[in-house]
Amino acid sequence: MAVKTYRPLTPSNRYKTSNSFKEITKKRPEKSLVTTRKKTGGRNAYGRITARAIGGGHKQKIRLVDFKRNKRDIDAKVIAVEYDPIRSANIALLEYADGEKRYIIAPNGLQIGATLQSGDKAAPELGNSLPLQNIPEGSFIHNIELVPGRGGQIVRAAGTSATLMSKAEGYAQIKLPSGEIRRIHARCHATMGQVGNSDHENVVLGKAGRNRYLGRRPLTRGMVRNPVDHPNGGGNGKSKGGGGRQHLTSPWGILAKGYKTRRAKKQSERFILVRRDGRAVKAK
Q1: Are 3-200 and 225-284 in the same CATH fold?
Q2: Which of 14, 36, 57, 89 could pair covalently with 8 via S-S, beta carbons 3.0-4.6 A apart?
Q3: Per-domain residue ranges for the chain?
Q4: 3-200: which CATH number, 2.60.40.10, 3.40.50.10490, 3.30.450.20, 2.40.50.140?
């Protein structure tokens, strides 16, 4: 999808860009596949703010996307490509032979009228969902399951894709967009191709108001606050920006940089072969 620019008639239009939406063929969502999104403003069940800088924003409807693709061995026709306000990727509307309609994440290059299928008998072609054990090595895939039958959980953002590197001993080695290489069970399903709307990363908001449309509120840096409000606050000018004098932390003192948040004894640790930073994991 191409990116649209604007004439700099106002300061906000000088750098602002947006999607051209040329791939979109249907403006209104399928009524049977949407539900109301209730906004929390970052508050939990007790009304306390647990996620800061959240609130407001435009009304949004949740599109019920089929990540499981569990309607096996039945042909489905692509009848529309739609915009989804709560995700970076576009979605495609499928109509199965029995009349049922479902949404899927739209891969790059998917055409209206194409016939898709999921299951063990599906061909390794664009948009089809099939087990990793049936996908040729070197293929680009997305919407990958981590547990067979649970539904796709990773590689779902716009423009992303993973690479199937090899298969052995009932597992497949997958190189993820982050650079991490991990083993995933060969019975897990994945969808062929790269996620569409790859130009999403080139969109420039251009003004603060577009952040507010998305429900993001302003958030001041800890360094510019008073000492009573933040551990990094206080001082004359920019005197506490880290760099040896003080470690950057959250308002509650948790380290912001260099602090490992992943549990060392997490069960899935044994499936990771190469980490995102390129370090190989030692076999235990």
Answers
A1: no
A2: 14
A3: 3-200, 225-284
A4: 2.40.50.140
- In three-state secondary structure terms, 64 is coil
Domain 225-284: give its CATH code: 4.10.950.10
What are the tens digits of pLDDT across the range 252-284? 988 888 888 889 889 999 999 999 989 888 776
Q: Which of 64, 131, 73 is nearest to 97 (CA)?
A: 73
CA distance 107 to 216: 28
Please name every residue paired with 184 in a beta bridge, in sequence order, or none if there are none.
172
- The pLDDT > 90 percentage for the chain reads 81
DSSP 8-class letter at 211: H
Long-range contacts of 117-121 (CB under 8 A, 24+ apart): 117/73, 117/74, 117/75, 117/76, 118/69, 118/70, 118/71, 118/72, 118/73, 118/189, 119/72, 119/73, 120/72, 120/73, 121/73
Count of residues making up the chain: 284
The structure's pTM equals: 0.90
Give the C-alpha distances (Å, rounded to integers) separating 25 from 65, 80, 100, 123, 189: 17, 6, 19, 26, 28
Q: Write down the H helix ranges in 199-245.
A: 208-213
